[in-house]
Amino acid sequence: MAEVAQLPLNEEQLVSKYHRSNLWRLTISQALAGANSVVIYATGAIVGSMLAPTAVLATLPISIFVVGMASCVLPAGEIARRFGRRMAFMVGTSTGALTGILAALAMYFGWFWLFCFSAFLGGAYASVTVSFRFAAADGVPAEKRAQALSFVMIGGIAAGVIGPQLITHTMHLFPERLYVATFIGQAIVAMLSGFILSGVRVPDIKQSKEVVGRTLTDIATQPRFISAVICGAASYLIMNFLMTSAPLAMQMHGHSYESANLGIQWHVMAMYVPSFFTGKLISRFGATLVSTVGIVLTGISAMIGLLGSDVFHFYALLILLGVGWNFGFLGASALVLECHRPEEKNQVQSLNDFIIFGLMAIGSFASGGVLSAYGWEVVLWLSLIPLVLAALTLAATKIKRAEPLNQESRLGEVDL
Q1: Structure pTM?
Q2: What is the pLDDT of residues 357-403, one digit of tens each?
Q3: Which of 395, 396, 415 is nearest to 405 (CA)?
Q4: Which residues contact 392 (CB under 8 A, 6 or more apart)?
Q5: Which CATH class is domain 11-204?
Q6: What are the b/e assignments for 90-117, b being 16+ CB within 10 Å?
Q7: Where is the Major facilitator superfamily (MFS) profile domain (predicted)?
């Protein structure tokens, strides 16, 4: 694919000519790329239970997906830094297409380890898609960045519909080879996303020389940063822990594949829909309070699961889990933004993400073994432990809201 020539450094002209096109391309691609991740989350544990040599490894594919995402975030950023965002997008979508092809082959031949490798590649694809919302803000005036980010996040809502519907309408196309057609469809969706992203054009703006900030040790030992990381990690860890186990738990309790797919669909939508007003809530009530509400909602979702195993209980759990994740994670992200200076942004956010995705991987690895060995109720009780830790940390740490460190630090503009 021919590389687009560098654009002249006239921000006003770039915004007026390319901004709207970029927004639509990135939003549609966010929906398509998000659908790829939803497919893996919705089918990973079920496919694992079908192909794994032991039930303990049922959720291993989803865990490997998270590992792939965590381990490829920094390489994806380096590709974007050296060769531009478009090159990173093309590498990512190519990896996404390969994910679907290898997963389809794994299902056809019954090769569990090939499916795990395809899940790792799916995580690599996801590590590229997390930069879509930042690409939307490239070259855009500060007062328009919030609108750009919000617009692109609509794609996350659409992903919650496209992914489950793709599964529902393709899973039985080859009756003796469940999900083969689904993963072929997943590859096609990634290719379509790559085609759309090939038209994204962003300005080539030279960055100023970075000022050396404080050491990571000094930053990481701040009480505010510790609270932010624990809260963000607990929110993401438990969301992933329960979402990974829920489809397989629904199957174990006699519910259909279609019911599990619909539950994941509502869950993903609940994760993203609140984002349109979460930023305003944080501005009005503070990041600490919003984070605390998120932790409480996540705990209530687990308690709902303990009340019964009907479809209603699973749906209510997954929906409330999504809302709780949104409040807890975005609130924690706002706290992180208060912990660093502009020149320290990359280091601090990378450390935060590394901790979160690392703990997510641990939770994913643990969920399959706990579910198969001890059952769904034990999974729910265990999920309360990190939540209690996060709540106690927030309560024990006196966090005062700080003024934004710079224009880019406001939630809803550049850093979400």
Answers
A1: 0.69
A2: 777 777 766 766 787 778 888 889 988 988 888 888 877 765 444 44
A3: 415
A4: none
A5: mainly alpha
A6: bbbbebbbbbbbbbbbbbeeeebebbbb
A7: 187-416
